[in-house]
Design goal:
This protein is of the alpha+beta class and about 180 residues long. About 25% of the residues lie in helices and about 20% in strands. Strands 5-3-4-6-9 form a five-stranded mixed β-sheet, covered by helices on one side.
């Protein structure tokens, strides 16, 4: 993967996609500062490790999930290096086993594509159909990172600023505790 080795402060000078510009506009409206790294499409945690080295902060894993009936949707933010087992989350939420939501729901609700989802896209979930879940480990981090619309840029901002941004979208995060799964 090709990555720009420059750490930028703030939004890019050149015009980006409508979705990305909407996210930058909201960040500007809220007075939220951030750092940015531009790169080729990054859709794996391995790609994110390369980005972390320039960004100067860990990138969290963002999983878009749904129930079996595809009527309840969840966006889970968790440490990037933590393994994920749906049974632990399903038990905490008191719902049937969760699975990954499909591409169509991701496009409709978050205006993005697989590999690009982050809490920044909650801006587009104006009907609040998605429940935001944050692993408590992230709440002890000073900064949190995410893609602004598509995974060709990654932003790093203060955790408190991301929570301010999330609040501005009308979403209320649920803090959950995901154990590190033991070998089964």
């Amino acid at each position: 993967m090709k990555i720009d080795q420059t750490l930028y402060s703030g939004r890019p000078a050149e015009k980006r996609s409508e979705q990305e510009n909407a996210i930058y506009n909201r960040l500007d409206e809220l007075g939220i500062s951030f750092f940015r790294v531009d790169h080729e499409h990054a859709d794996t945690m391995e790609d994110c490790l390369l980005i972390e080295s320039v960004l100067g902060g860990k990138i969290c894993k963002n999983l878009f999930l749904c129930n079996r009936q595809q009527t309840d949707f969840y966006l889970l933010l968790m440490p990037g290096d933590k393994p994920f087992k749906t049974k632990y989350l399903s038990a905490q939420l008191g719902c049937s086993r969760l699975s990954f939501a499909d591409e169509k729901h991701m496009a409709d609700l978050l205006h993005t594509i697989p590999g690009s989802v982050s809490a920044l896209e909650l801006l587009f979930d104006t009907e609040i159909k998605i429940r935001l879940l944050i692993d408590e480990e992230l709440m002890s981090e000073e900064t949190i990172s995410g893609h602004p619309g598509f995974s060709t840029s990654t932003l790093r901002m203060m955790r408190t600023d991301l929570l301010k941004y999330i609040e501005s979208t009308g979403h209320i995060p649920t803090i959950i505790t995901l154990p590190v799964p033991e070998d089964e």
